[in-house]
Amino acid sequence: MRSHQPLWFHVDMDAFYAAIEQRDNPDLRGKPVIIGAMPGSRGVVSTCSYEARTFGVHSAMPISQAYRLCPDGTYIRPRMEHYSRESAKIMEEFYDFSPRIIQVSIDEAFIEMTGTGGIFGPPEQAAMKLKNRIRERIGLTITVGAAANRLVAKMASAYQKPDGLTIVPPGTEEEFIRKLELKDLWGVGRKSRQRLEELNIRTVDQLIKIPKDTLGTLFGRAGGEYLYQVCRGIDPGIYDGQIKSHSISNEHTFGIDCKDSQAVEDTLFALAHGIVFRLHRENAQSRTLVLKLRLGDFSTSTIQKSLDHPIRTVEECFDLALELLKSKWDRRNPIRLIGLGFSNVEGTEKVQQGELFDDPEDRRSKVEAAVLELQKKYGDLPISKGRKFIRGTDPDGDGR
User: Fold this and answer.
1) Gap between the Cα atoms of 169 and 6, Å rounded
2) Which residues contact 75 (CB under 8 A, 6 or more apart)?
3) In b/e form, how buried is each residue of 207-240, taking b as 16+ CB within 10 angstroms?
4) How far apart are CA 17 and CA 28, in angstroms?
5) Which residues are designated catalytic?
6) DSSP labels for 109-135?
7) What are 6-19's pLDDT values in tens digits?
8) β-strand pairing of 142-147 with 346-347
9) What is the pLDDT of residue 365?
10) Which 8-state DSSP code applies to residue 62?
11) How wide is the angle at C-alpha 111 spanned by C-alphas 117 and 165, nearest 5°?
12) Taking a C-beta distance cutoff of 8 angstroms, is the pair 37, 47 a contact?
């Protein structure tokens, strides 16, 4: 890839929550670690280490089933505040490589590397510098996919995990995608694959041979167009809305559709933490919070609410997000994707000096800004925003 050609990295943190626990507690390294509900209770697996995956454990699996498969694993309740802080530290490292970062969840992001060849070298060299940076400074491994567009970069990062690197040079997108299985095509879900199998279409090669008009007849105009593009490595515009300067948003796709309310709320808190701290980083403000939900049947909806004052703290953002969630989700239909964002983001002038900590929200906002500055200056400082108690969880929330 020459430096003037489009270049995107998709970075995926490997088994993020479990990897943090193994880093923080060396006794857990090399052992099956399951993050989620405790055995004997209702709930699901949030994520698990690669060692646990060899037993058949996976994200969104009922914890009772995980325990039957792996009774000797170490079970830990999620520490979402801690994971959010580590995610923020990693994203700060990404900004040293490019000013254009699209964080799409707590553990993945796109980095536009177009035109950076003169600074970081060719894609493979730049990706290795990035991987080594995160390993040395954060103590975690990441997997990188590199391509000329976000769609192919996303699929490339899933090709070799963990600690992988896959580069798809321009012009070889279709050749790369032909190596994949239908389940590896981004955005082609279970129901679409079932329909393809009913039509005896079981490989990417078979899918590529179907004319666009025929796909439109079988899957509808939009669905057919998407299938035609994705199997050829043509980006239909994934995550386009997140790079606009007037909005800040994160989203998380569950590995398996989730209806465990605690897991959903933990994820929502992590998203709130991320977008509020991005507001602080950009010295910006917003009065409008937007919640996005995609359910198991792929139906997608958004809901938003505007306040008469800027949303300044994680607590205020999370409380409002919970209000939106409860108005939109009946807890019966599982959630496939959840997103949270600020719209109509505006720059803000520095607050004029006045009475210190005029109100509780001012106090929290200033504390968050101070935390951000400390994290920038002292990367290893163990300080972060904490989550309020929810449904009787203990203050540490680490389950140990």
Assistant:
1) 10
2) 34, 36, 38, 39, 63, 67, 399
3) beebeeeebbebbeeeebbbbbbbbebbbeebbe
4) 13
5) 108
6) EEEE-TT-HHHH-SHHHHHHHHHHHHH
7) 999 999 999 999 99
8) unpaired
9) 56
10) B
11) 75
12) no
In the sheet where 8-13 sits, what is the strand order?
101-105, 108-112, 8-13, 142-147, 165-167
- pLDDT value, residue 370: 53
Considering only the C-alpha atoms of the chain, give the largest distance between any 2 of them, rounded to a whole number of Å. Answer: 71
93: β partners: none
The 8-class DSSP code of residue 139 comes to S
User: For residue 138, what pLDDT is reported?
Assistant: 97
Helices within the chain (DSSP H only)? 16-24, 50-53, 63-69, 80-94, 117-120, 123-137, 150-157, 173-177, 190-198, 204-208, 212-230, 261-281, 314-328, 360-377
pLDDT at 394: 35
Residue 207, token pair as written in the block? 């899918």
For residue 313, which of 360, 373, 251, 358 has the smallest C-alpha distance? 360
Residue in the structure block whose two tokens are 């919070």: 289
Partners of residue 167 on adjacent β-strands: 146
Task: Give the residue from 230, 284, 245 showing the smallest Cα distance to 102.
Answer: 245
Q: Is 30 exposed, middle or buried (0-12, 13-18, 19+ CB in 10 A)?
A: exposed
For 167, left (φ over 0), alpha (ψ -120 to 50), or beta? beta
Tell me which residue of 124, 104, 102, 127 sits closest to 112, measured CA to CA.
102
